[in-house]
Amino acid sequence: MAHIIKLNVGGSLFQTSKSTLTKFDGFFKTMLETEIPVAKDESGAIFIDRDPKHFRVILNFMRGGHVDLQKYSEDVTEIQKEAKYYLLGGLVELCKLKPEAQKMPYFAETFEDMARTVASSTKKVIFENFLLFKIFLIQVVCTVFFGTAFRCVYRKCFIKAVMLYGDKVDFCFREQAVESTRIIIHKKMTNRVFDENPGFVFDFDIIKKRIPDIDNY
């Protein structure tokens, strides 16, 4: 059974597991794994003298290692301050992302932007398999590296791909010096990666080839 921890953050009560609070190096890991004194309220909950407004974001980051900051675009600066207090370097860095780097489809300027954009993908599609009487949660990211010579042709293909699959797949594009195209499809829910090199043409049918049931999502 998980070790349940109760937290009183500025008067608001939260409940989580010790494994969540110690998943990352920082404030809570130090608190729970060292001998430093811990303040508690009258109910025995650990007391933290901070504004609780953004603590749910802090807690969700510790649970999954990522949060969708688009929902909190007006509060990112405050969230970053809280992340610094709790010594969560990963969340501090996430708060530094350009807003554009968290939107899809996205044309990345650097490999770092592309990596951060892929990591921030949150689009999920419900797929119902009536034969198995099951509902699956699908998350797919498609990154495309394309050459500069046929930029206009490529972009027309990209528009078509987004029109066909943009409600089901997060796309991220990056221009490169070489003329060949490289397409990497990541089916995140099953952690499967497909690396395709279709030559000089962006073949959006590759998406359907690698995810044959995509039209049923």
TrEMBL record:
SMART domains the UniProt entry points to: BTB (SM00225)
Annotated TM spans: 130-154
Keywords: Membrane, Transmembrane, Transmembrane helix
Family matches, as Gene3D superfamilies: Potassium Channel Kv1.1, Chain A (3.30.710.10)
Example of a GO biological process term: protein homooligomerization
InterPro entries in alphabetical order: BACURD1-3 (IPR045068), BTB/POZ_dom (IPR000210), SKP1/BTB/POZ_sf (IPR011333), T1-type_BTB (IPR003131)
Superkingdom assignment: Eukaryota
Domain BTB: 3-71
Coiled coil: none
Name used for this protein in its record: Protein CBG24423
